[in-house]
Amino acid sequence: MEEVLKLKKATYHLWTFTISKLISSFGAQVYAFAVSFYILQLTGSATSFATNLICSILPRTIMAPFAGYAADNYSRKTIVITAQIATTLAIGGLLIVSLTSGLSLIAIYVTTVVISITSTFSGVTFSSSVTGLVDEGRIQKAMSLNQMSISFAAIGSPAVAGLLYGTVSMPTFLIMYMTASIIGVFLESTMNFKLFAKRKEAIAGEPKESMLQSMKAGLAYLKLQPTIMAIIWISLFINFLFGAFMVGHSFILIEKMKMASEHFGFIEGASAVGMLLMSIYLSMRKEVKFPLLVAKRGVIGMALIMGGIALPLIIHMSYYGMFAYYATLMFGFGLTVIIVNTPLQVMMQKMIDDDYKGRVFSILETMAMALTPLGVVIYGFLYDIFPAEWILIVSSLLLIGVVLVLARPSVVIKAHPELGAEAVKAEIVSE
Q1: Average pLDDT score, the chain
Q2: Same domain for 426 and 300
Q3: How many domains in the chain?
Q4: Nearest to 127 by CA among 343, 292, 348
Q5: What is the DSSP string of 128-187?
Q6: Whether residues 244 and 180 fall in one domain
Q7: Residues 217 and 162 in one domain
Q8: CATH number at residue 253
Q9: Residue 372 is part of which domain span?
Q10: Residues 6+ apart with CB under 8 A from 401
Q11: Which InterPro entries does UniProt cross-reference here (predicted)?
Q12: How does pLDDT run across 377-404, given as a tens digit for each residue?
């Protein structure tokens, strides 16, 4: 009877988690869209716009280790709810400033920093809590629904924000985001973060580890997990090398191919549609049996798509042929991102000890957040010097090489012993 009640509560968590993520993601993206346009209209300065981006990225990189330490040592429910309340108060503060003295860049930057910090604590803690909120058999469903809500927000929020911007005032945007945040607080307060948790109970009177000791313990734990280390290294190389994609596809479409803004927007949206459809598919199907092998194929697919962006630079295409080609490519990219991310996330959720999840996910976030801007800066420099097609093709080949080395047959066998050496070799040959 107790088990049935726990499963019912887990089902409630699945949908509450999804709705909460959808509302908060939608609110955050509408806010980000409105603030970005406001800054550009107010100043006309790319530097002011970039400063706001730095105010979002830098705090996440710095605060992720603190968030991981907190998630592993304190109540995860308290952290999530406190972070959401802090977000609500930050937006409320900006709303008061806008109504009393008018919005200023400093007020926007401070709010962006606060929201970045709170979202880091909330994101790392939620990632660490999935196995405590839902039963093991539905972890893939939870991760897919989570990604589905993010994808849905990515598709819908620019359209909603674009329609509203110019017709409603900035305080209205802030009220919308505050309302979404308050609903998030209410939904999260009804969740039981310890339903399936396997965390060790702290012994009364036992001193807590310092943050430095805790992070050292997290790194020592990772060293004993070669499969997780391989996944982390693959993730880091993807984040860095995809700087070629992030900079390249916009640069080629806008500068080289002179793509109209509405067509460029449609191509961007095709990626989010692909992500949404694959998330829906994975949420309904049974769990992926060999996630590392599936992810390996997915990364190779992503690399080929990245190289494929260069094709219209080498082979002449008509404008609409090129538009259709890039839309198809971006749709495929959206599909492969989910094929890679979701099975690996499920695998890591199951493999990482509950007491180390916060630190492991925070280490991954810190390194990824540091490497992504670095990749963008380096590739931005390279695109000014070398032909775009060669940068994309070389980066694509490097990514294929990296995944073939880091997810070589011996690593796949360790991750999935039941496959057997011969089965793995047969699978890889068939690729």
Answers
A1: 82
A2: yes
A3: 2
A4: 348
A5: HHHHHHS-GGGHHHHHHHHHHHHHHHHHHHHHHHHHHBTTB-HHHHHHHHHHHHHHHHHH
A6: no
A7: no
A8: 1.20.1250.20
A9: 213-430
A10: none
A11: MFS, MFS_trans_sf
A12: 788 888 888 888 899 999 999 999 999 9
